[in-house]
Amino acid sequence: MTTETTNPAVTFTPERVAKAQEIIARYPEGKQKSALLPLLHLLQEQEGWTSPEGMDYVARMLNIQPIEVYEVASFYTMYHLNPVGKHVIEYCRTGPCCLMGGEEVYAHLKQRLGIDTGQTTVDGQFTLKEVECLAACGMGPVFQVREKYYMNLTNERVDEIIDELSK
Amino acid sequence: MATKILTEHINVPGIETFDVYRKQGGYTAVEKAIKTMTPEAIVEEVKKAGVRGRGGAGFPMGMKWSFLAKPEGIPRYLVCNADESEPGTFKDHYLMKNIPHLLIEGMIISSFALGANKSFIYVRGELMYVIHILEKAIAEAKAKGFLGKNILGSGYDLELVVQPGGGAYICGEETALLESLEGKRGNPRNKPPFPAVKGLYQSPTVVNNVESIATTSWIVNHGGDAYAAIGIGRSTGTKLISASGHINKPGVYEIDLGVPVEDFIYADEWCGGIRPGHKFKALVAGGSSVPILPANLALTLANGEKRLMSYESLSDGGFATGTMLGSGGFIVFDETSCIVRNTWNFSRFYHHESCGQCSPCREGTGWMEKVLHRIEYGHGHQQDIDLLVDVAKKIEGNTICPLGDAAAWPVASAIRHFREEFQWHIDHPTEATQPGAVYRGEMALV
């Protein structure tokens, strides 16, 4: 983990600076640390992952210690603490999805991409992650790519989605 | 025909917009509440309604509101718990996505009743698209004068903030949610003090579920007595049920509390029966954390009467022969389901989601997952079943928050009702680990 002075390279785009300021202003005076999770989402949206340099930048923005950002980012599963591929496929591995054939579909997904959970394809296109329950149990098996949900998955549908995303 | 309190207009095209929602009678409850009622009168109606917390705990909402400390000069907060992450539960997702203004309207009424001028909707971060829908709805309501400064000329101000989570089931626990909202790790707090005394930013705070808050518009419009007239006994009103698993029609259904479980599973109006050619084996009635029941106990009480979809009927018999309504996450298993594999799956979830603060939960959930894994994969020891029961007992009731109980109950209940299936896995390791192998009593394998 770098310290806040080693690499100041990450900064938000002007639009994101404005968005960050709007987020910080939502909270009562003196309670701006509440903006931490939303700012980490903003950082990840820009950088693709939650980089140490980015976390240092967020710490400076909120006037808190970098360790306060690291300990939060490492607690929550949505923040990618390592670089990821262009598309992060997060598949739901919990009970209801598995009841509907999720395990077989995810095995096919791994085979199709040639990677296991936590890995990225050599061309940098796809990263595969497990996620605990996506709150779409009636439409399982399900996975999510960025903000989009793909539901009622079958092996054929998985192939179609991968083809679509690969274009 | 069931009363539709939350879903009456959910399929109206464009209902996610202010104008269409308004045309369907939306925001009339805000007008009535702010222009004609006092905050105390609204709290009284909610108390009369007898609505119980729809997040899973089932605590009376009006009573929770009346606990709120009201010192002068200190802000009070309302926080909506939209961190829905329990396997089997997806009703809040459905409600917020399809009819966001129902929640916004409920937030305005509830905030006014509680004297809050800034309220938060904490949504699980995975639902980022829903967060955008809510933000858009808030902007629309603000532009029409239902939010912001001097709402409808009443002098009442309210700002609504949508807060994204970062992906942690534990943040559904109300004090962990408040920690997260303060920009920290989601570790549950010791109670007391309860949030009603020291909650968000150490101020008096009420945390309510999405579905609970969304009922307040109907209660204000129709009165608490009318709400209490629906349902059965102390299970008043309607309930959203998220139905999944081996049924013909998975989805979210609004039912009057008190419908027989059998009708809910088999009637075309709801789940439409077990998928063709299969038999009903087991039920998780209220989200993965509640005890699993075999088919016979799911449909009937120990005395032979029909079991009903209500807080009391589902818990009838305690954990020996009953379960809980919980959040209404209704998961149906047919005879192809391996109970051991499903229990391991749930156990893996709770191990992953334990925040690690309490040793019984941090260590115990890991042990349970490990032992269940070895039984499922053909390496079980004869003493493993009793070991699991022992570990579950040592977690239950010994943690700061209820995640420990939530992790222990699925394991303890699966062994209580399906012990022979665990034993069979240990006795037949090679057969049990065949792909698709399922224990079916005397029939053994398929």
TrEMBL record, chain A:
Q: Name one GO molecular function term.
A: NADH dehydrogenase activity
- The signal peptide annotation in the UniProt record is none
Cofactor details (free text): Binds 1 [2Fe-2S] cluster.
Keyword Iron-sulfur among UniProt keywords: yes
**Origin superkingdom:** Bacteria
Obligatory cofactor(s):
[2Fe-2S] cluster
InterPro entries with a match to the protein in the record: NuoE-like, NuoE_dom, NuoE_N, Thioredoxin-like_sf
Q: Where does [2Fe-2S] cluster bind?
A: 92, 97, 133, 137
Keywords from UniProt, A to Z, are: 2Fe-2S, Iron, Iron-sulfur, Metal-binding
Q: What family does the entry list?
A: Belongs to the complex I 24 kDa subunit family.
Q: What is this protein called?
A: NADH-quinone oxidoreductase subunit E
* Organism for this UniProt entry: Spirosoma radiotolerans
From TrEMBL, chain B:
The record's section on InterPro entries has:
NADH-UbQ_OxRdtase_51kDa_CS, NADH-UbQ_OxRdtase_suF, Nuo51_FMN-bd, Nuo51_FMN-bd_sf, Nuop51_4Fe4S-bd, Nuop51_4Fe4S-bd_sf
Which stretches make up the NADH-ubiquinone oxidoreductase 51kDa subunit iron-sulphur binding domain?
340-385
Q: Write down the superkingdom of origin.
A: Bacteria
UniProt keywords, alphabetically? 4Fe-4S, Flavoprotein, FMN, Iron, Iron-sulfur, Metal-binding, NAD, Oxidoreductase, Quinone, Translocase
Which SUPFAM superfamilies does the UniProt record give?
Nqo1 FMN-binding domain-like (SSF142019), Nqo1 middle domain-like (SSF142984), Nqo1C-terminal domain-like (SSF140490)
Q: Does the keyword Metal-binding apply?
A: yes
Q: Name one Pfam family in it.
A: Complex1_51K
| Translocase found in the keyword field | yes
Q: Kindly list any coiled-coil regions of this protein.
A: none
Its EC number(s): 7.1.1.-
Q: What class of enzyme is it?
A: translocase
Give the GO molecular function terms: 4 iron, 4 sulfur cluster binding; FMN binding; metal ion binding; NAD binding; NADH dehydrogenase (ubiquinone) activity; oxidoreductase activity; quinone binding
Which Gene3D superfamilies does the UniProt record give?
A: 3.10.20.600, 6.10.250.1450, NADH-ubiquinone oxidoreductase 51kDa subunit, NADH-ubiquinone oxidoreductase 51kDa subunit, iron-sulphur binding domain
- What is the required cofactor set for this protein? [4Fe-4S] cluster; FMN
Q: Catalytic activity, per the record?
A: a quinone + NADH + 5 H(+)(in) = a quinol + NAD(+) + 4 H(+)(out)
Q: Which family does it belong to?
A: Belongs to the complex I 51 kDa subunit family.
Q: What does this protein do?
A: NDH-1 shuttles electrons from NADH, via FMN and iron-sulfur (Fe-S) centers, to quinones in the respiratory chain.
Protein name per the record: NADH-quinone oxidoreductase subunit F
State the organism of origin.
Spirosoma radiotolerans
The lineage is: Bacteria, Pseudomonadati, Bacteroidota, Cytophagia, Cytophagales
